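An instance follows:
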Amino acid sequence: MKDYSIIIKFVEQELSKDNSGHGLQHALRVFHDAQKIYEKEGGDEKIILSSALLHDTVDKKLFDNFEERIAYVSDFLKLNNYTDEEIKEIVYIISNISWNNGENKQLNNLNAKIVRDADRLDAIGAIGIVRTTEYGNSKHRDFYNAENLTLQDGKIMFNKVNNSTLSHFYEKLLLLTDLMHTETARQMANKRHQFMISFLDEFYDEL
């Protein structure tokens, strides 16, 4: 396997100030999950793993000037001997896989689908719960508020989506397993999905 240490160092530098669950540790988990999916599904290992590491270095949630970020990351890849075709595909992947404001762009190749699946795997399960809480805190959001909740047959249940971290489970996290592109990722996602359901059931019981 190619040595990705230079890319890892670059990602660490670019995301060093992140406190929203999109830092180096997230990138490394996506890298490892992408590798697991690639081993079962195929694709271009170099493109997949490079994109997995770099995917948040251009994320519109984290950086203001998207076009400048794309040019910056492209220059970095060129300096590290990636071909123009490799850079073009990596840029395509990292520009299109993210979930921004509910946007779910169609993808045109397996490499992109694997990277998106790996990124989405890190958004669910126990790690997903931690990360969505970190992201909510970075945006000064309440985890939940009264609008979210209703009492039905003596049980507290979710009622309404609003600008809270709890809402994010229903707007995104609980939808992701069904949106996985590859069968390998879907199998990996099932256990994490059930853990989130159990967490929410316990959360409402404790309330």
About this structure: The chain has a mean pLDDT of 93.
